[in-house]
Amino acid sequence: MDYSVAVTLGFLVFAIVMFALEKIPLSITAMIVAVGLHLSGVLTATEAFKGFVDSNVILFIAMFIIGAAFFETGVAVDVGNVVNKFAKRNNPYYRYHDAYRYYVWFLVQHRYGSRYDSCCHRYL
């Protein structure tokens, strides 16, 4: 096995484990992998950081920022309440919608703790 293949696979395993465990922030993990591949000589600096200026990456970053702002300000809850007003109560799938709401609330509480308490309690 070539040196660059072994180093790349090592960084790939490191990235997968760190993304799964989230012991350090995901952005720091991505930077560690990019810098590590550059410092080990596998990639040049241009190759290592070329993906960060891709328009799709910037689009996803912007979507995450806007989505977080919607949850922080409560706009997402207000939009959900408006959609619920127009939902038909005689829909046979509506009862599953309530269970899904509680499941999403549980996941948000488990992941983010009390930062979203007021937001989620208004939603329920």
Q: Helicity range of the residues? A: over 70%
List the total number of helices.
7
Any idea what the shape is?
A: elongated
Largest β-sheet summary: none
Question: How many E strands?
Answer: 0
Mean pLDDT: 80
- Derived from helix and strand composition plus strand pairing, the structural class reads mainly alpha
H/E topology pattern: HHHHHHH
Percent of residues in beta strands: under 5%
| Uncertain stretches of 5 or more adjacent residues | none
- Measured between the Cα atoms of the first and last residue, the distance is 56 Å
Rg for CA atoms: 21 Å
Description of the molecule:
By secondary structure, the chain is mostly helical. 77% of the residues lie in helices and 0% in strands. It has seven helices and no strands. It has helices at 3-21, 26-39, 45-49, 55-73, 75-86, 94-112, 117-123. Helix 1 runs antiparallel to helix 2 and helix 5 packs parallel to helix 7. The longest helix has 19 residues, at 3-21. It is elongated, with a radius of gyration of 21 Å.
Can you give keywords for this protein?
single chain; 77% helix
